[in-house]
# Entry
Amino acid sequence: MATFWAIVSASALNGLGAVVGGMPLAPDVARRLLLADRSRELSDILNEARNHLDSLVQLDDVEPLIASISTYVPSSSWTQVLLRDHIVVGLCADFLDEVEPHLGKAFTPPSGTYGPWLGRGTGTRVRWDEELRSRLEADQDARSANSVFARKLVGEMLSVVQRLAAVHADLTSALTGADGGELDDLAAINEVLAAVLSKHDDRVAGLGLEP
# Structure
């Protein structure tokens, strides 16, 4: 469905903006190159996803809502730049794991899997997460602030997903496999989000932050 690819496009576009916007917070050239490598990955996702759109009207329909996440929860440190992308990728991966059994070819990248898009096993993802863990370990004084940042970011993302699910009922039904009507669709997507949030809490705790 076009709405699905519009959401993917908007997410990649705003992820790209968040990564590029983190350049001034990067402490040195090596870290800026890490951002550049991540930007390239997000650009590849955007270029593929936008090919599924018939017009930019579809993107205009969802992009402002997704863009609001960065507006309400901006990154204020290098650690938070790293943490933001780590959280977003983790949530997206868990969400796709939950709904992938219901997705047909119309929702699937050419490779047949979302793994490359999520950077699973890639050098950039490994370096990114190693840098994040190093920063969190070195800056224990900011643990509380980073925990609050993570909670705000996740709360805003889940709120956006719920609003998109309520507006785009056909997509919600397709993603969840529920076909009992709008209320059943929303109940199903809330179950998916609960599972995603549970995995997120475990992942954040593994970073030494408070879920």
